[in-house]
Amino acid sequence: MVNDDILAKINARLETVTKLPKMKDGSIVKLLEEKGISRRDFLKWAGTMAAIMGLPATFAPTIAKAAELADRLPVIWLHMAECTGCSESLLRTDTPTVDSLIFDYISLEYHETIMAASGWQAEENLEGAIEKYKGQYILMVEGGIPAGSSEFFLTVGPHGTTGAQHCRVASENAAAIFAIGTCSSFGGIQAAAPNPTNAQPLSKITNKPVINVPGCPPSEKNIVGNVLNYILFGTLPSLDAFNRPKWAYGLRIHDLCERRGHFDAGEFVQHFGDEGAKNGYCLYKVGCKGPYTFNNCSRERFNSHTSWPVQAGHGCIGCSEPDFWDTMGPFEEPLADRLYHTAFGGLGADATADKIGIGVLAVTGVAIAAHAAIGALKKDKKGDE
């Protein structure tokens, strides 16, 4: 009954979106066919997206319909202080996935990396898109944003408009706002101490609600999935304490990791290149921050879903957590014995999920280390026998 009610609401929403003017010729179905992706594969992708977003498998046709309507909602994508890695994760692929093709199909009204215009023409395009689609467009911002007296560290266009001002103006009339990547979500490496440009997350620049989609970069499914969520529901998804969608950031890397069994068995890589590393043992002792990091990397992976850092042999560095550059380093040493000296406290990763305070969090951190140590001791004793 609950699912029926949700489906009814989604169908009503999709009827509204369908009535919006089509902004591109052709269709996503035709585009997929041209790239060799069948209707069957498209529906399999839709079923996967339904599962990722916490919806029943029976919603797959509805997800597919939402994807077909992706061109009804214009997107304005702003670049701030960043490396363009989030855009590259969608654009640079030799075997385009359904996710990247859908993003190609979306009506990108402004995106500095791929647009032909520059200078005053680019500025005119941005201003025109904001005015023409007022209250309708989705705003996506990539990169940290110099703020306050340091705004001048990032200026855009021939008139020297600051990046922060661009974000404020574009946010004012956006239907939904997404901070794409850790830099835009939390400041990223630009905000690392001593933060000379006073780089700030998008949420500190605008007073409008911002959905954070962190990662360095986030997976393409986490980016496209949020667009689909907005098409389906027309509202913000359920968010955690850091305004991250729970459907994508509700579990820790540790919870989903394929090496978790080795952690529980006390089988650890002691140093890179040892026998444990060759056997795929847990990377906790060489610095993996999976127990403190919320993301779905191990499930979604990267490079056309073929691999992710832990599978490739290096521990998670916690890049989807706030201030990871300062709080998670050194990246190749365990974090537990330094929990008392980090900025986690009541704002830490465990606190995000469990709503616990600094005292319990510290105990939790020590418990993780203790669990690892006890597991290793048992492993050693077994070896001696």
TrEMBL record:
All copies of domain NADH:ubiquinone oxidoreductase-like 20kDa subunit, residue ranges: 83-228
Domain of life: Bacteria
One Gene Ontology term, aspect cellular component: cell envelope
EC number: 1.12.5.1
Protein known as: Quinone-reactive Ni/Fe-hydrogenase small chain
Family statement drawn from the similarity comment of this UniProt entry: Belongs to the [NiFe]/[NiFeSe] hydrogenase small subunit family.
Lineage: Bacteria, Pseudomonadati, Campylobacterota, Epsilonproteobacteria, Campylobacterales
Keywords of this entry: 3Fe-4S, 4Fe-4S, Iron, Iron-sulfur, Metal-binding, Oxidoreductase, Signal
